[in-house]
């Protein structure tokens, strides 16, 4: 996230041996322009027309499932774009859809056909678990993981569910990647990982080498996969500027060229999810280049994190969900800087349609707002914070059971965030956290005689959420 005082990393190279190897020996000596061959099979049968990429180009498998690709001089991995109808390859739930390129050779991908139609499925979106030490890890394992497990269970035993983490898996302490992996394993669903600024190496050169440790754990930093009529793309939009902790939001030309090729295989009316760390609409310098590639598609959702607040933005045909974080305000309190509770998002896909909600940690999913009432000089003021509001929502209120109409959204600071975080001594031990302006507040003023206020928020899918407060 933002530049902070220097935290010394214990080690850049993690000695823990992970089960993620998937025949990826990192001692390979890479030969530029290596010729890579292999097969894609499922239960011993060839998978025809499966897409293979090296992060630069694509090839399709032939009728016998074989492929041949001459990799780009900068390529590090060869990976399969998992087709619809197949399970996500994983090792202890960490997505494992790639091989690290050696000086040439044969790399096979053995897929597993799904036993159910994946046109209907759900996924969990984690933004910024961002653990710094074992105390943070303990909170993640004791609170975030069990809450997510319960949500997955509540989706139903027959629901097909996967997970996506959009970066800042850890907070500069790369020794904790294995503990993040433990959290993923306990959730019991295959998880894809994206790179955040706190997952980067700050002392290994420039942008092209800042992700070496991340890659040793999780493979390529950009890739894609399919599930039903949804196409998912993970991008790396954190550009390291070569000086300790300096970075910006930028999508490299290399990735944009790859994405342009990738999208040629996607139907224009299918669902398209673009997953990355830094929000595109206001923090990625070349966001217009990305929007231009996405313009032909009818149903595009960008899924981002990084900010430690929850916000929705619609730019043309693109709906961007900038998610509240798993760690909230860096594991210092129950809410993010905008008052959104620590939590994650849940998306449900059916065909080329998607619905979603924000799941506040250790609360029922029906809890979608916080309401505060304070007394002013000669009146009372109500502030409702509707965390996942977007312009298609409707927010109404009642005073002493009398309907008063719709509320309009306003910018401001969440009262609980002010109480917990405002000031240079709060919160302890991370006083850099401060309340953040948000546009999902709703305010009403009324007389001191009012004894009860009720707020009903109706989301874009017709779901109603109610909060009734006696004052």
Write a structural description.
A hairpin with a 2-residue loop joins strand 27 (394-399) and strand 28. The chain is globular, with a radius of gyration of 23 Å. The chain has a 6-stranded mixed sheet, with no helix packed on it. Strands 1, 2, 5, 10 and 11 form a 5-stranded mixed sheet that branches. A 5-stranded mixed sheet has the order 14-13-12-23-24, with helices on one face. The longest helix is centred in the first third of the chain and has 21 residues, at 134-154. 44% of the residues are buried. It has 471 residues and is of the alpha+beta class. The chain folds into 3 domains: 31-110, Immunoglobulin-like; 120-360, 4-Layer Sandwich (Purple Acid Phosphatase, chain A, domain 2); 369-470, Immunoglobulin-like, CATH 2.60.40. It contains 7 helices and 32 strands. Helix 1 runs parallel beside helix 2 (177-187). Helices cover 15% and strands 34% of the residues.
CATH topology of the largest domain: Purple Acid Phosphatase, chain A, domain 2
What can be said about the biggest beta sheet?
Answer: 6 strands, mixed
The overall pLDDT average reads 93
User: Stretches where pLDDT falls below 50 for ≥5 residues?
Assistant: 1-30
Helix percentage range: 10-25%
| Shape verdict | globular
- How far the N terminus sits from the C terminus, by CA atoms, comes to 38 Å
Supply the CATH class of the largest domain. Alpha Beta
Count of DSSP H/I helices: 7
| Order of strands in the sheet with most strands | 15-16-19-20-22-21
DSSP summary, beta strand count: 32
Radius of gyration: 23 Å
């Amino acid at each position: 996230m933002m530049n902070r005082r220097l935290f010394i990393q214990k080690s850049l190279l993690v000695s823990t041996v992970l089960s993620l190897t998937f025949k990826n020996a990192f001692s390979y000596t890479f030969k530029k322009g290596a010729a890579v061959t292999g097969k894609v099979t499922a239960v011993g049968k060839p998978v025809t027309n499966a897409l293979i990429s090296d992060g630069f180009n694509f090839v399709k498998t032939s009728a016998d499932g074989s492929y041949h690709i001459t990799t780009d001089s900068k390529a590090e991995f060869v990976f399969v774009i998992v087709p619809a109808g197949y399970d996500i390859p994983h090792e202890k739930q960490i997505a494992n859809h790639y091989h690290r390129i050696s000086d040439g050779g044969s790399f096979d991908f053995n897929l597993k056909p799904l036993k159910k139609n994946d046109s209907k499925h759900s996924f969990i979106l984690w933004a910024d678990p961002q653990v710094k030490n074992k105390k943070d890890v303990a909170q993640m394992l004791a609170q975030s993981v069990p809450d997510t497990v319960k949500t997955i269970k509540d989706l139903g035993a027959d629901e097909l569910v996967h997970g996506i983490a959009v970066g800042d898996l850890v907070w500069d302490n790369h020794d904790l990647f294995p503990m993040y992996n433990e959290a993923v394993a306990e959730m019991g669903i295959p998880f894809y990982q994206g790179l955040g600024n706190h997952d980067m190496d700050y002392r290994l050169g420039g942008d092209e080498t800042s992700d070496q440790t991340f890659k040793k754990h999780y493979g390529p930093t950009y890739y894609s996969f399919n599930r039903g009529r949804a196409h998912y793309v993970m991008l790396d939009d954190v550009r390291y500027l070569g000086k300790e902790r300096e970075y910006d939001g930028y999508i490299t030309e290399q990735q944009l060229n790859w994405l342009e090729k990738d999208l040629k295989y996607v139907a224009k009316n299918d669902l398209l999810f673009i997953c990355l760390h830094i929000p595109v609409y206001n923090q990625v310098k070349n966001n217009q280049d990305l929007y231009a590639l996405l313009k032909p598609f009818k149903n595009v959702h960008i899924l981002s994190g990084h900010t430690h607040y929850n916000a929705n933005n619609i730019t043309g045909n693109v709906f961007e969900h900038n998610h509240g974080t798993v760690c909230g305000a860096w594991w210092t309190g129950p809410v993010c800087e905008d008052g959104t509770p620590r939590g994650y998002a849940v998306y449900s896909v059916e065909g080329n349609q998607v619905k979603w909600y924000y799941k506040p940690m250790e609360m029922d999913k029906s809890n979608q707002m916080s309401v505060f009432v304070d007394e002013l000089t000669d009146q009372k003021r109500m502030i409702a914070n509707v965390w996942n509001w977007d312009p298609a929502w409707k927010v109404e209120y009642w005073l002493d059971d009398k309907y008063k109409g719709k509320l309009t959204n306003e910018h401001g600071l969440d009262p609980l965030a002010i109480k917990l975080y405002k000031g240079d001594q709060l919160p302890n031990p991370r006083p850099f956290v401060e309340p953040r302006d948000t546009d999902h507040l709703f305010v009403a003023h009324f007389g001191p005689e009012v004894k009860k206020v009720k707020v009903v928020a109706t989301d874009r899918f017709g779901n109603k959420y109610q909060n009734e407060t006696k004052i």
